[in-house]
Amino acid sequence: MTNTIVKSAAMALLATVAIPAVSLAQSVPLIIGMSTTPTTLDPHEDSSAPNNATSRHIWDSLIDLTGTSANEPELATEWKAVDPTHWEFKLREGVKFHDGSTFDAQDVIASLLRARDKPSQGFASYTRNIVNVTAKDPLTVVVETSVPDPLLLNSVSRIRIISADCAEAPVQDFDNGKCAIGTGAYVFSSFSPGDRLVLKRNEDYFAGASHWSDVTLRFLPDDGARLASLLSNEIDIIEALPADGMARVEESSDLQVINGQSSRFVYIGMDVSKDVSPFVKASDGSALDRNPLKDERVRRAILMAINRPAIVERVMQKNGTVADQFVAKGYMGHSDAVEPVGYDPAAAKALLAEAGYPEGFRLTLHGPSGRYVKDSEVVQAVGQMLARIGIQTQVEVQPWSMYSDAYANGDFSMFLGSWGVNTGETTNPTVALVATRDEEKGTGRYNGGGISDAKIDEVLAKASSTLDEAERLPLLEELSKLTFDKLWLLPMHYENVVLGAKASVRYTPRGDKYTLAYFVEPAQ
Amino acid sequence: MAVSLIRRLIQAIFVILAMTVIVFVGVNVIGNPVDILINPDANQAERLRVIAHYGLDQPLWKQYMLFLQGLVHGDFGNSFVYGRPALSLILERLPATLELAISALLIAIVIGLPLGLYAGLYPNRISSRLIMSGSILGFSLPTFWVGLMLIMVFAVELRWLPTNGRGATAEFLGAQWSFLTRNGLSHLLLPAFNLALFKTSLILRLTRAGVQEVLPQDYIKFARAKGLSERRIVFVHVLKNLMIPLVTIIGLEFGSLIAFSVVTESIFAWPGMGKLIIDSINLLDRPVIVAYLMMMVILFVGLNFIIDVCYTLLDPRVRLDAKA
To answer: How far is Cα B299 from Cα B305, in angstroms, rounded to an integer?
Structure first.
């Protein structure tokens, strides 16, 4: 007894004396289990979520895109539109790359142009309007755009700033570390493709050094492997906690579930243009002479027949939040005027009869498998719910590599689709999903239902060229209202970001689902 | 010997050439890689630029010709997804797969062969029966399930071994290997055992059947009559004669271990070729798929050749240059 007291007293004494020295040299490792695998460290090769989330650890951008898609200063401290097609960025002073060289305007020019001109064209949608980038002085950059572009700041926030010395470097030089040199919070240590990226803290990071001295990103796309790593205490935080493991994590006092809402919007698209739709038949299997999905009442009846709260709660096991429009409250373009459609099968049946289909009809609902959270289970549930109001629904799921082509081409009558609203405002989903298809203008690329609403196209064109935020916001809200009043798309849910973590860390999930080590905090 | 070697080589080249056509046409019928690769926000002009960049705007025969042209120079083309030469991507992952396959095969031989011998020599003992019924489990339990159970028991519950990944590696012959470090070895153990389970049962049963076939033969009886020690009979006369079917199976199974260890590699997050090829198929990364399948064809052709050479060493009656 006395022995232990003496011991603990000694320990306490030792601790007080040793703390300053220890905390300096202390190793505070953090291991993140990512659910997707980045293909390369070259930050300009491909703009996929895993690549961008990974590159965010080593490199910074001019503008920081926050978890709710707001723009905050990063390598640029301030910016303004000098005229509708010229943006001026003031750069942060005294920022150093990991190799000790100083960051300046030349690095910005090299990076933006490299992202624009890469043959893989991964960033083309962000750089398409950039005509030229010039340096006014070493700490001022001017970006010239071909048209007034209200989304330029968002675009710029996605392009990582590399050292100008690496402008000509091939992908290999980034993967082997030679050019994996940024200004970011972590310094490259080693990269083993398909396995892990090992990083060390950048002690001179301009926003303050990270809490974690060593960060390892492990790429574990297999659900079982990722979960096992968390349960066995090997990993601190994992992405996309598998639904099957949720109970085990909740039970454990050492682990926690972290849940947040993402900006990934899941919807059901319908063929609203063809007079006879390929997968819609009369209830006795004979051909129909008209396409019921063109009738707004039928679309409303279908949405009323789908019990979305139950789908989110049970089928998705709380991995989603019911959606009524493109973006949730708090994002730009969310409209309070959009009226939510509730679950009401009796009224749905009546509405269907009113539209002239008292007997219902037959249709095939297509969906991808393994692309979105519980996608095939969701379409199966929807199929059963539709059967209850007399729409005999056959469900067909396909692997993404086959499905992606077909649904965008409009091969289906009714299909499950999804859009990651990565600009955090409504022109982005409207351009792709609802705008009239026009290959010249690049609109309606994923408008598989053939939606064509002149009013939407008009408001969209206006919103896409208005720089003034105050003027633009009502237009963004109108896009939501126009789309969901007529139910051109049936809103289903937003996917949730569900992470599993040790109880010893804290993290606020982001709308884009990135897990960034810098923002993971110790619990105490 | 030399003549038949050249004949085999020419055969192999034709097999490989036929394979290029099948593979090339095959991957070109499924889906459109551009739809998967391209940023969803891209417009039509950007799409066309990407299509042209990957050469997908050319007619199929022209793409094939360009591919053959590259092949002659040992160039399988650049991966669409990784933006690097497909061949180097695959070779980079080869050591991981190779060490997993070799470890699994070693485990299978070290466990399967003696147990099979034992069960064959003493078929009526209870222990032999236990071994045989145990091997049925090895056959019938699905790999993925066994893998998950191994992880649950040894990594999650007991915490003796790590759940997944490759662990620390050390350099040897210019590549990174796990089996050279203690940490790496502990990572290697579970997946190798998982992969070995089926092969162990296979070798075990094959050995037992072989032993039982050889034992009643006249030359064994003669050897016994001659008064040779039991040890010599088993290890020289029995073993050598049952080696021929065994070598065939081991050779082919080695090939399949390398080519198809996808399930184990996924469950244990082992960064080998199996995982690469599954990812590439999902992303329709044609150059990598084609390069991988080509390598596998070459691997199997090569293995078969080695097996044939082994025959001649094991069985003097088989000669490669003998008339068929």
So the answer is: 10
Query: Is residue A40 less than 8 Å (CB to CB) from chain B?
Result: yes
For every residue of A209-238, DSSP letters joined together read --S-SEEEEEE--SHHHHHHHHHTTS-SEE
**Token digits for A168?**
């000509």
Residue pointed to by tokens 């910005």:
A108
A388 three-state secondary structure: helix
From B42, B165, B282, residue closest to A195, measured CB to CB: B165
For residues A65 and A157, the answer to whether their CB atoms sit within 8 Å is: yes
Q: Of the candidates A434, A123, A167, which has an alpha carbon nearest to the alpha carbon of residue B46? A: A123
Higher pLDDT, A194 or A486: A486
What's the confidence (pLDDT) of residue A294? 93
Inter-CA distances, B65 with B15, B55, B68, B71, Å = 18, 12, 5, 10
Report CA torsion sign: B313, B317, B321, B324.
negative
Give the chain B residue whose CA is nearest to the CA of A193. B271
Which tokens is B295 given? 């390598």
A194/A202 Cα distance (integer angstroms): 24
Q: What local confidence, expressed as pLDDT, does residue A52 receive?
A: 92
ipTM: 0.77
Is CATH 2.60.40.10 what the domain over B87-323 is classified as, yes or no?
no
Could you tell me which residues come within 8 angstroms of residue B17 by beta carbon, excluding any fewer than 6 positions away?
none
Do the beta carbons of residue A231 and residue B156 sit within 8 Å? yes
Tokens 């004979």 identify what position? A286
Are B40 and A432 inside 8 Å of each other by CB? yes
A45 touches B at CB < 8 Å: yes
Residue numbers in B near A171 (CB within 8 A): 82-84
What pTM was computed for the model?
Answer: 0.79
For residue B233, the one-letter residue type is I
The answer to whether A228 faces chain B, any CB pair under 8 Å, is yes
Whether B267 has its CB under 8 Å from any CB of chain A: the answer is: yes
Which DSSP state fits A293? G
What is the CB-side half-sphere exposure of residue A271 using CA atoms within 13 A? Answer: 22
Contact B167/B186 with Cβ under 8 angstroms?
yes
The amino acid at A372: Y
Question: Which pLDDT belongs to residue B41?
Answer: 73
If one counts every other C-beta atom within 10 angstroms of the C-beta of residue B32, the result is: 18
- Of all residues in chain A, the percent with pLDDT exceeding 90 is 67
Residue A281 clears pLDDT 50, i.e. is over it = yes
How confident is the model over A326-378, as pLDDT tens digits?
A: 999 888 899 999 999 999 999 999 999 999 999 999 999 999 988 888 899 99
Specify the residue for token string 């209830």.
A283
Instruction: Sort out which chain A residues have CB atoms less than 8 A from B159's CB and list them.
Output: 232-233
- With an 8 Å Cβ cutoff, is A419 touching chain B? yes
pLDDT of B84 reads 85
H or E segment to which residue B124 belongs? none
Question: Closest by alpha carbon to A500, among A255, A260, A318?
Answer: A255
Which pLDDT belongs to residue A192? Answer: 86
* CA separation, residue A299 to residues A385, A391, A489, B140 (Å): 14, 12, 9, 49
Question: Any idea what DSSP says for residue B241?
Answer: H
Q: Under a CB-based contact definition with an 8 Å cutoff, are residues A132 and A150 in contact? A: no
Strands A237-238 and A29-34, bridge-based pairing = parallel
Q: pLDDT tens digits, residue range A141-182?
A: 999 999 998 889 999 999 999 999 999 999 889 998 999 999
What residues does each domain of chain B span? 87-323
Chains A, B: CB contacts within 8 A come to 140
Instruction: Determine the Cα–Cα distance for residues A184 and B84; give it in Å rounded to an integer.
Output: 25
CA–chain centroid gap for A297, Å, is 32
Are B148 and A224 an interchain contact pair (Cβ–Cβ within 8 Å)?
A: yes
User: Locate tokens 């070459």: which residue?
Assistant: B298
